[in-house]
Amino acid sequence: MRLQKYISRCGITSRRKAEKLITDGRVKVDGNIVTELGTKIDKTKNKVQVDNKYIELEENKVYILLNKPVGYVTTLRDEKDRKIVTDLIDGINERIYPVGRLDKNTSGLLLITNDGELTHKLTHPSFEVDKTYLALVEGIPNENKLEIFSKGLDIEDYVTAPAKIKILNKNKNESVLEITIHEGRNRQVRKMCAAIGHPVKQLQRISLGDLKLGNLQESKWRHLNNEEVDFLKKI
Ligand code: URA
Question: Which atom of ligand 1 is nearest to the CA of 187?
Fold first, then answer.
Protein backbone atom coordinates (compact mmCIF):
# COMPACT_ATOMS: atom_id res chain seq x y z
CA MET A 1 0.00 0.00 0.00
CA ARG A 2 1.22 3.53 -0.75
CA LEU A 3 2.48 5.29 2.34
CA GLN A 4 0.09 8.25 2.10
CA LYS A 5 -2.87 5.87 1.74
CA TYR A 6 -1.71 3.88 4.74
CA ILE A 7 -1.43 7.02 6.89
CA SER A 8 -4.93 8.15 5.97
CA ARG A 9 -6.36 4.63 6.50
CA CYS A 10 -4.92 4.72 9.99
CA GLY A 11 -7.31 7.58 10.64
CA ILE A 12 -4.54 10.15 11.12
CA THR A 13 -5.49 12.60 8.40
CA SER A 14 -6.64 12.89 4.78
CA ARG A 15 -4.58 11.44 1.94
CA ARG A 16 -3.58 14.95 0.77
CA LYS A 17 -2.44 16.01 4.23
CA ALA A 18 -0.61 12.72 4.61
CA GLU A 19 1.40 13.61 1.50
CA LYS A 20 2.39 16.88 3.15
CA LEU A 21 3.45 15.03 6.31
CA ILE A 22 5.68 12.85 4.14
CA THR A 23 7.27 15.67 2.13
CA ASP A 24 7.78 17.64 5.38
CA GLY A 25 9.93 14.75 6.66
CA ARG A 26 7.61 13.90 9.55
CA VAL A 27 7.13 10.24 8.58
CA LYS A 28 9.45 7.32 9.29
CA VAL A 29 9.29 3.78 7.95
CA ASP A 30 11.16 1.26 10.08
CA GLY A 31 12.96 4.11 11.78
CA ASN A 32 14.07 5.92 8.60
CA ILE A 33 12.61 9.21 7.41
CA VAL A 34 10.87 8.80 4.05
CA THR A 35 10.09 11.90 1.98
CA GLU A 36 9.30 10.28 -1.33
CA LEU A 37 5.60 10.20 -2.19
CA GLY A 38 4.33 6.87 -3.40
CA THR A 39 6.73 4.81 -1.31
CA LYS A 40 5.12 1.39 -0.94
CA ILE A 41 4.85 -0.31 2.41
CA ASP A 42 3.80 -3.75 3.57
CA LYS A 43 1.31 -3.24 6.38
CA THR A 44 2.15 -6.61 7.90
CA LYS A 45 5.89 -5.94 8.06
CA ASN A 46 6.74 -2.24 8.09
CA LYS A 47 6.40 -0.03 11.15
CA VAL A 48 5.33 3.51 10.40
CA GLN A 49 5.77 6.56 12.65
CA VAL A 50 4.32 10.04 12.31
CA ASP A 51 6.09 12.63 14.44
CA ASN A 52 7.89 9.70 16.10
CA LYS A 53 4.62 8.02 17.14
CA TYR A 54 3.82 4.57 15.80
CA ILE A 55 0.55 4.33 13.90
CA GLU A 56 -1.55 1.27 13.09
CA LEU A 57 -4.40 0.37 10.78
CA GLU A 58 -7.79 0.30 12.39
CA GLU A 59 -8.87 -3.17 11.39
CA ASN A 60 -12.28 -3.75 10.04
CA LYS A 61 -14.14 -5.82 12.61
CA VAL A 62 -15.93 -8.82 11.16
CA TYR A 63 -18.62 -10.86 12.96
CA ILE A 64 -19.86 -13.99 11.24
CA LEU A 65 -22.40 -16.63 12.19
CA LEU A 66 -21.74 -20.00 10.56
CA ASN A 67 -23.96 -23.06 10.54
CA LYS A 68 -21.14 -25.54 11.08
CA PRO A 69 -21.65 -28.95 9.53
CA VAL A 70 -20.51 -32.18 11.17
CA GLY A 71 -16.97 -33.18 10.15
CA TYR A 72 -15.26 -29.78 10.47
CA VAL A 73 -12.93 -28.85 13.32
CA THR A 74 -12.91 -25.46 15.00
CA THR A 75 -9.13 -24.98 14.99
CA LEU A 76 -7.29 -22.70 12.59
CA ARG A 77 -4.88 -25.32 11.37
CA ASP A 78 -5.17 -29.03 11.77
CA GLU A 79 -2.19 -31.33 12.04
CA LYS A 80 -4.24 -34.33 10.96
CA ASP A 81 -5.35 -32.41 7.87
CA ARG A 82 -9.02 -32.47 8.77
CA LYS A 83 -11.44 -29.92 7.32
CA ILE A 84 -11.48 -26.62 9.24
CA VAL A 85 -14.46 -24.30 9.68
CA THR A 86 -12.82 -21.24 8.10
CA ASP A 87 -12.58 -23.20 4.81
CA LEU A 88 -16.32 -22.60 4.55
CA ILE A 89 -15.94 -18.82 4.56
CA ASP A 90 -14.69 -17.03 1.48
CA GLY A 91 -14.41 -13.43 0.40
CA ILE A 92 -13.20 -12.21 3.80
CA ASN A 93 -9.71 -10.66 3.81
CA GLU A 94 -9.41 -10.23 7.56
CA ARG A 95 -7.73 -12.91 9.67
CA ILE A 96 -10.78 -14.48 11.28
CA TYR A 97 -11.05 -17.31 13.78
CA PRO A 98 -13.80 -19.20 15.64
CA VAL A 99 -14.89 -18.11 19.11
CA GLY A 100 -14.74 -21.12 21.41
CA ARG A 101 -15.27 -24.54 20.00
CA LEU A 102 -17.81 -27.05 18.82
CA ASP A 103 -16.81 -30.71 18.59
CA LYS A 104 -16.06 -32.11 15.15
CA ASN A 105 -19.29 -34.11 15.35
CA THR A 106 -21.42 -31.20 16.57
CA SER A 107 -23.17 -28.96 14.07
CA GLY A 108 -24.83 -25.57 14.33
CA LEU A 109 -24.19 -22.03 15.44
CA LEU A 110 -20.57 -20.96 15.51
CA LEU A 111 -19.38 -17.40 15.88
CA ILE A 112 -16.33 -16.36 13.84
CA THR A 113 -14.60 -12.99 14.15
CA ASN A 114 -11.35 -11.03 14.10
CA ASP A 115 -12.29 -9.16 17.30
CA GLY A 116 -9.68 -10.40 19.77
CA GLU A 117 -11.09 -8.46 22.71
CA LEU A 118 -14.54 -9.95 22.23
CA THR A 119 -13.12 -13.46 21.77
CA HIS A 120 -11.16 -13.11 24.97
CA LYS A 121 -14.30 -12.06 26.84
CA LEU A 122 -16.57 -14.75 25.40
CA THR A 123 -14.13 -17.58 26.04
CA HIS A 124 -13.28 -16.54 29.59
CA PRO A 125 -14.54 -19.11 32.16
CA SER A 126 -16.57 -16.44 33.97
CA PHE A 127 -18.55 -15.70 30.79
CA GLU A 128 -22.09 -16.96 31.27
CA VAL A 129 -24.55 -16.81 28.45
CA ASP A 130 -27.20 -19.38 27.62
CA LYS A 131 -26.29 -21.84 24.89
CA THR A 132 -29.09 -24.01 23.57
CA TYR A 133 -28.61 -27.37 21.87
CA LEU A 134 -30.82 -29.94 20.22
CA ALA A 135 -29.63 -33.41 21.14
CA LEU A 136 -30.83 -36.62 19.58
CA VAL A 137 -30.23 -39.20 22.30
CA GLU A 138 -30.64 -42.90 22.78
CA GLY A 139 -33.82 -43.78 24.67
CA ILE A 140 -36.26 -41.49 26.47
CA PRO A 141 -35.24 -39.94 29.80
CA ASN A 142 -37.85 -40.31 32.55
CA GLU A 143 -38.92 -37.51 34.92
CA ASN A 144 -36.35 -38.50 37.50
CA LYS A 145 -33.48 -38.32 34.98
CA LEU A 146 -34.67 -34.95 33.68
CA GLU A 147 -34.67 -33.60 37.21
CA ILE A 148 -31.20 -34.91 37.98
CA PHE A 149 -29.95 -33.37 34.73
CA SER A 150 -31.47 -29.98 35.45
CA LYS A 151 -30.21 -29.76 39.03
CA GLY A 152 -26.55 -30.44 38.22
CA LEU A 153 -24.58 -33.56 37.43
CA ASP A 154 -21.29 -35.08 38.40
CA ILE A 155 -19.36 -35.43 35.15
CA GLU A 156 -15.90 -36.82 35.77
CA ASP A 157 -14.26 -34.29 38.10
CA TYR A 158 -16.90 -31.60 37.88
CA VAL A 159 -20.46 -30.83 39.02
CA THR A 160 -22.43 -28.98 36.37
CA ALA A 161 -24.49 -25.88 37.10
CA PRO A 162 -28.29 -26.10 36.86
CA ALA A 163 -29.42 -26.56 33.26
CA LYS A 164 -32.69 -26.65 31.34
CA ILE A 165 -33.87 -29.75 29.58
CA LYS A 166 -37.09 -30.75 27.85
CA ILE A 167 -38.21 -33.48 25.52
CA LEU A 168 -39.24 -32.09 22.14
CA ASN A 169 -39.91 -35.33 20.37
CA LYS A 170 -39.68 -39.05 20.99
CA ASN A 171 -40.23 -42.46 19.46
CA LYS A 172 -39.61 -45.98 20.74
CA ASN A 173 -35.80 -45.87 20.82
CA GLU A 174 -34.69 -42.27 20.84
CA SER A 175 -35.72 -38.73 21.72
CA VAL A 176 -34.89 -35.15 20.79
CA LEU A 177 -34.01 -32.98 23.77
CA GLU A 178 -33.69 -29.21 23.98
CA ILE A 179 -30.89 -28.46 26.41
CA THR A 180 -29.74 -25.07 27.67
CA ILE A 181 -26.51 -24.63 29.60
CA HIS A 182 -24.47 -21.55 30.33
CA GLU A 183 -21.13 -23.21 30.88
CA GLY A 184 -18.85 -24.39 28.12
CA ARG A 185 -16.80 -27.30 29.35
CA ASN A 186 -15.23 -29.69 26.91
CA ARG A 187 -17.92 -32.02 25.46
CA GLN A 188 -20.20 -30.96 28.28
CA VAL A 189 -23.58 -31.77 26.73
CA ARG A 190 -22.38 -35.18 25.56
CA LYS A 191 -21.01 -35.97 29.01
CA MET A 192 -24.20 -34.79 30.76
CA CYS A 193 -26.44 -36.91 28.57
CA ALA A 194 -24.17 -39.94 28.97
CA ALA A 195 -24.22 -39.41 32.76
CA ILE A 196 -28.01 -39.91 32.85
CA GLY A 197 -27.73 -42.97 30.61
CA HIS A 198 -28.84 -41.38 27.33
CA PRO A 199 -25.82 -41.03 25.05
CA VAL A 200 -25.94 -38.39 22.32
CA LYS A 201 -26.29 -39.56 18.73
CA GLN A 202 -26.43 -36.10 17.16
CA LEU A 203 -25.86 -32.63 18.57
CA GLN A 204 -26.62 -29.20 17.15
CA ARG A 205 -26.23 -25.77 18.76
CA ILE A 206 -29.18 -23.55 17.91
CA SER A 207 -28.54 -20.40 19.96
CA LEU A 208 -25.95 -18.42 21.87
CA GLY A 209 -27.68 -15.77 23.97
CA ASP A 210 -29.60 -13.55 21.54
CA LEU A 211 -27.90 -15.10 18.52
CA LYS A 212 -30.10 -17.67 16.80
CA LEU A 213 -29.25 -20.15 14.09
CA GLY A 214 -32.72 -19.65 12.57
CA ASN A 215 -33.12 -21.11 9.10
CA LEU A 216 -29.53 -20.57 7.97
CA GLN A 217 -28.64 -23.61 5.89
CA GLU A 218 -25.88 -25.98 6.89
CA SER A 219 -22.40 -24.82 5.74
CA LYS A 220 -23.76 -21.31 5.07
CA TRP A 221 -22.76 -18.16 6.91
CA ARG A 222 -23.94 -14.59 7.32
CA HIS A 223 -22.67 -11.38 8.89
CA LEU A 224 -24.24 -10.50 12.25
CA ASN A 225 -26.56 -7.51 12.13
CA ASN A 226 -25.95 -4.41 14.29
CA GLU A 227 -28.33 -5.56 17.04
CA GLU A 228 -26.52 -8.88 17.33
CA VAL A 229 -23.12 -7.19 17.51
CA ASP A 230 -24.46 -4.83 20.18
CA PHE A 231 -25.71 -7.82 22.17
CA LEU A 232 -22.22 -9.36 22.13
CA LYS A 233 -20.55 -6.12 23.14
CA LYS A 234 -22.96 -5.58 26.04
CA ILE A 235 -22.39 -8.98 27.63
N1 URA B 1 -21.23 -29.80 24.28
C2 URA B 1 -20.71 -30.86 23.65
O3 URA B 1 -20.73 -31.97 24.14
N4 URA B 1 -20.17 -30.67 22.44
C5 URA B 1 -20.14 -29.46 21.83
O6 URA B 1 -19.64 -29.35 20.71
C7 URA B 1 -20.69 -28.38 22.52
C8 URA B 1 -21.23 -28.57 23.74
Answer: 3
